[in-house]
Design brief:
Layout (H helix, E strand, L loop, with lengths): L1 H12 L2 H18 L5 H13 L6 H41 L5 H20 L1 H9 L3 H24 L3 H27 L12 H25 L2 H9 L4 H18 L1 H15 L3 H37 L8 H26 L6 H22 L3 H12 L1 H12 L4 H29 L5 H24 L2 H16 L1
Helix pairs in contact: 1-7, 1-11, 2-4, 2-5, 3-4, 3-6, 3-9, 3-12, 4-5, 4-6, 5-8, 6-8, 7-8, 9-15, 10-15, 11-13, 11-14, 12-13, 12-14, 13-14, 13-18, 13-19, 14-16, 14-17, 15-16, 18-19
């Protein structure tokens, strides 16, 4: 949500050209972060595997994990330097072709500072992946959240001081520096057993994580092409000024996606531990819960934004900045499909099965080709349509097939317990959205938002409770509510 607020702030202080250029910086920063080469998820999984090995004592686990962390840190130090050098090269070769000449001096200085922040961001990854693998997920999320808020506050301050894009870049640099320091402090505070083991980088650990990391890197490259090429395509064809309206709806869409899969990401270390322990029943329970919860949350949120997106943008940024319902609906469809894919693929990879390299690369390449061709013919609408078609043709069906096979779940069981209830939820949300639009026709934007949110969230919550939650889940929620009320 910080990123959603951030867009409003940037557009309040920068022109459309400068704002679009900054969002282009962020997209390029994503490409530089790809030089992580899949080490982060591999190290997290390796740590979780160690924690799931019952034959090891607590001290033996700490010793092995300390060796993994030391090796991870050395690898990130090398990668961070690589990011710094690669960023300088990208800025020199690419920015002059997309940034207006009048903005080039400011953009160059901002890029130099932003690039240093990107290198720090990669370097700090060692602490965060270690926290994640150790199961300190709440700590990792809290550090990220507070440093994001701090970065937002600094950004506002520097923009008010008239520092423009350079101020945004300085805020990004400081934010990543604080996050890195906080991550290491909390890692050793919450896991004091690691302090007693002064491990050194190990070639054996390096070799063990290299091949899985490179497999993850292939998957990351496909994901990068799938969802992080929209802004460069728009900048190259239509100019940086057209990025901001698209980025506004994209940021909200990705915020919905991120919120929807919070429980999914939080469960990955436990999926790794269950797989290491051979707990088949626990694996199936976690996967099915992730599908039901993740998809139902995304569908409820998407239904509201699909019917009342223009009102949201009008209130948030101002009238005249809405990219249009065809673009919005295509983007939301692609993101909803991606939630389903992410649930299944992350569970499979959490179990140590890195089998999505080829299909993900095909998906990313197909998206890049389709979005370019469709954008040239149909305008910006063609960009998310290309993404949607690529996911349907590749990731969607393949991740489902692999996931059901790995966790030994029959297709019939999956359809009965997940697909049909979700179809019921979708039908209810569609009818609820049409009814809400009819009832609220002619209302102002704020009333439309409040009324639409109330109606659709009520319908979605009621149907989710009735169709998608098990009796045990309902009973636990009721017990927690009673405990909360009584306290």
């Amino acid at each position: 949500m910080v990123n959603v607020v951030f867009i409003r702030i940037v557009l309040s202080y920068l022109s459309l050209e400068l704002a679009g250029t900054w969002f282009l910086f962020v997209s390029i920063g994503m490409y530089l972060a790809y030089l992580d080469l899949g080490i982060s998820p591999t190290v997290s999984r390796e740590i979780s595997f160690v924690l799931g090995r019952g034959e090891l004592s607590a001290d033996e686990k700490d010793a092995e994990i300390a060796g993994i962390i030391a090796t991870c840190l050395r690898m990130f130090q090398v990668i961070s330097l690589t990011v710094l050098m690669a960023g300088l090269l990208v800025g020199w070769l690419y920015l002059p072709h997309v940034v207006p000449p009048a903005d080039m001096d400011q953009a160059t200085m901002a890029w130099l500072v932003f690039n240093m922040g990107a290198a720090l961001n990669v370097l700090g990854g060692a602490a965060f992946v270690s926290l994640y693998g150790m199961g300190n997920i709440a700590t990792e999320k809290i550090i990220r959240s507070f440093t994001l808020l701090g970065g937002l506050a600094l950004s506002v301050t520097f923009l008010k001081l008239g520092l423009g894009m350079v101020g945004l870049a300085i805020a990004w640099l400081v934010q990543n520096l604080i996050a890195r320091l906080a991550g290491w402090v909390m890692l050793y505070r919450q896991n004091p057993g690691l302090r007693g083991h002064k491990a050194r980088p190990s070639m054996e650990v390096f070799r063990r994580i290299t091949i899985p990391s490179l497999k993850w890197a292939g998957i990351s490259l496909g994901a990068l092409l799938l969802f992080q090429t929209d802004n460069p395509i728009i900048a190259g064809i239509f100019g940086p000024a057209h990025i901001a309206p698209y980025e506004a709806v994209a940021k909200i869409g990705f915020a919905l996606l991120t919120f929807s899969i919070l429980t999914v990401h939080s469960s990955i270390p436990f999926i790794s531990q269950a797989y290491a322990a051979g707990d088949s029943a626990g694996l199936e329970r976690l996967l099915m819960r992730n599908v039901r919860y993740g998809m139902s949350i995304m569908m409820i949120l998407v239904s509201f934004f699909a019917f009342f997106g223009q009102s949201v943008i009008n209130v948030w940024i101002g009238e005249g900045n809405f990219v249009g319902y065809p673009v919005l609906l295509a983007l939301l469809a692609a993101l909803t499909l991606e939630v389903h894919h992410a649930i299944h693929s992350s569970a499979v990879m959490g179990a140590g099965k890195i089998v999505f390299i080829r299909i993900t690369l095909i998906s990313g390449g197909l998206k890049l080709f389709l979005s370019l061709m469709l954008a040239l013919r149909y305008g910006i609408w063609g960009v998310p349509v290309g993404t949607c078609i690529a996911i349907l043709a590749t990731n969607l069906w393949y991740s489902l097939r692999v996931s059901l096979g790995v966790f030994h779940i029959s297709l019939k069981s999956y359809i009965i317990n997940a697909v049909l209830p979700l179809m019921g939820l979708g039908a209810a949300l569609l009818l609820g959205g049409l009814a809400a639009r009819s009832v609220l026709a002619g209302s102002n934007d704020i009333l439309s938002i409040m009324g639409g949110m109330t109606m659709l969230f009520s319908v979605g919550t009621a149907v989710t409770w009735g169709l998608l939650m098990t009796d045990n889940e309902k009973r636990r929620i009721i017990e927690k509510l009673r405990g909360f009320v009584s306290s």
